[in-house]
Amino acid sequence: MDVVQDWAAYFLNQNPQAYATYTPYLWQFYNALNTVKSWILPIIDQISHKPDLATIALLLVIVLVSLKILDMLWQTVIFWFKLAKQILFWGGLAGLGLWLWSRGPEGMMQDVQYWQGAWSSEYGYWKEQEKIARLSRQGVNYGAPPQPVQRGWFGR
Questions:
Q1: Are 27 and 20 in contact (CB under 8 A)?
Q2: pLDDT band at 30; cut points 50, 70, 90
Q3: Is Transmembrane tagged as a keyword (predicted)?
Q4: 101 contacts 109 by C-beta, under 8 angstroms
């Protein structure tokens, strides 16, 4: 903490004539610097004399910086998701337009009807498979001849 005090004193305790002699425009900067110096030096003194306060202040600064970095990462992720969504939307729209352009409205309707038929037949097949699996879990032997019930040691 002594190093911070030494550097703060070095930067804030410059000769006032050094600022005032350069140009009259620096006079406002000099007044603002003196005001900031009068606010910061007591805070630095108090923090350097109470290390618990310095630890809390350092921890607070670390938490704030890490939250700011986390917010920047979140904004980056959101940007890329929005960009991907826009690319998919406009790319799909362009692909749909190219499909319509190359096949024409009648050809596009034929393609849609073909794919609708193919998907509905697949859906029917897998729906039937699911029905068979459900019935076999319930103990119903679906689609096969019934098996005789085994009784006793020798199946009688």
A1: yes
A2: confident
A3: yes
A4: no
